[in-house]
Amino acid sequence: MKKILLVIMLFIGMNTQAQEVFNELRQKNKAIVENQQSAGIVRAISQFKLDALNYLVIKMQEEMPDSSVYFLDRQALAMDDFVQFYIKKLVQYNEMPQALQQEMTKMFMEASKDHPLFKDKDKEMVLAYYNSGEALLRFSLDTDWEKAFAYIQKKMEKNE
C-alpha cells in the first residue's frame, strides 16, 4: 500500500513540477517582453516564445483536454530547446556564406512547419511568424516541438 501511495505522490509531484516548468518559461518570457529595457532582439525572441506557449496551452485545452501537464511541459521545453538551438546555429553560421545561412534558416523553418501538432486550419494565424519577412524566428506556431527538434538535430548532424 505504501508503494502505491508513493507512486501516486510521485506522479502528482511530477505533474505539479511540470506545470511549474511551463509557467516558469511563460513568466520569464512575459517579463522580458514587458520590460522596456530589454534589447530588441531579446524581446523579439521572448515574444515568439510567449506566443508559442500561449498558442500551445490554448490549443491543448481545445483539442487535447485530457492530455497531461507533463505533455505540455515537454512541448514547452522542446520549443525552448529548438529556439536556443537555432540561435546557436545562427551564431555558428555567422561567418559562412549568405547562401549557407539562408539554407540553414530554411531547414529550421521547414522543420517547424512540417511537424504540426494540431493540424490547425487557421494557416494565417499559425504561420504569422513563418510568413513574416521581418520576424527573427520564422517558425510555425502549430508545431510538435519534440518532433521538430529531434528532426532538426539529425538534419544538422548530417550537414556538418
In a nutshell, what does this entry contain?
By secondary structure, the chain is mainly alpha-helical.
Describe this structure in words.
This protein has 160 residues and is mostly helical. The chain has 7 helices and no strands. The chain has helices at residues 2-34, 40-63, 69-92, 98-113, 123-126, 128-131, 145-159. α1 (2-34) packs across α2 (40-63) and α2 runs antiparallel to α3 (69-92). It is globular, with a radius of gyration of 17 Å. The N and C termini lie far apart (53 Å). Mean pLDDT is 87; it is low at 1-18.
Labels describing this entry:
mainly alpha, globular
Tally of contiguous helical segments: 7
Assembly state: single chain
Biggest β-sheet: count, sense, barrel? Answer: none
Show unreliable segments. Answer: 1-18
Q: Percent helix among the residues?
A: over 70%
Strand residue content: under 5%
Question: How large, in whole angstroms, is the Cα Rg?
Answer: 17 Å
Shape: globular
Layout of SSEs?
Blueprint: H1 2-34, H2 40-63, H3 69-92, H4 98-113, H5 123-126, H6 128-131, H7 145-159
Helix pairs in contact: 1-2, 1-3, 2-3, 3-7, 4-7
